[in-house]
Amino acid sequence: MTDPDTITRSVSDLGAGAYLLMHGYKVVGRQGKDIMFEIEPKEIEEFETLQLEYLRSEFHRFDACIMSLKKIQDHRNL
Predict the structure, then answer these.
(1) Main-chain phi, psi angles of 38, to 5 degrees
(2) Which residues are CB-neighbours of 7 under 8 A, at least 6 positions away?
(3) Please, are residues 28 and 37 in contact by the beta-carbon 8 Å criterion?
(4) What is the distance between the alpha carbons of residues 47 and 62, in angstroms, rounded to a whole number?
(5) Rounded CA separation 77/44 (Å)
(6) Residues 18, 50: contact at Cβ < 8 Å?
(7) How far apart (Å, rounded) are the C-alpha atoms in residues 34 and 14?
(8) 7 DSSP β-pair partners
């Protein structure tokens, strides 16, 4: 159950969701592919700033590298 003094925000990117979780935001569930976070109204700006910060972080680069590796074909099929 969510606190009436909090709001829910969703994030569709798994990497960004993990980044926000690492920064202490509380996951309250999923809705389809979206990850739902419970935040206080005063945290909205920081929450959104962290989402943008993730795009410039080494965490995003790491996530992109993992996704690239998943697309590599089996070397026997080349």
Answers:
(1) -105, 120
(2) 38, 39, 40, 41, 44
(3) yes
(4) 21
(5) 48
(6) no
(7) 8
(8) 39
H helical segments located in 1-78 = 14-22, 44-55, 58-70
Coil, helix or strand at residue 77: helix
Query: For residue 34, what are its two tokens?
Result: 């979206």
User: What is the CB neighbour count within 10 angstroms for residue 27?
Assistant: 14
pLDDT digits (tens, 9 = 90+) for 39-78: 999 999 999 999 999 999 999 999 999 999 999 987 776 5
Res 4: pLDDT: 75
pLDDT of residue 76: 74
- Report the 10 Å Cβ neighbour count for 26: 13
Q: What is the pTM of this model?
A: 0.82
